[in-house]
Amino acid sequence: MDLDESDQLLAGAYGTESMTASQLVSCKPYWPAILNVWDGAVWQHTTFDDAGMVSSVARDADGRIWAATSRGGAARESVNPESWVVEPGIGGLYVHQDGAWHRVESDLHGLPSTDVSVVRVADDGSIWIGTEGWGLARYEPNAEAPTPTATLNLPTRTPTPTVDPSAPTATRRPTIVPTQPPPLPSPTRSGTAAPIRNYLPFTHRS
Question: What is the pTM of this model?
Answer without folding.
Answer: 0.64
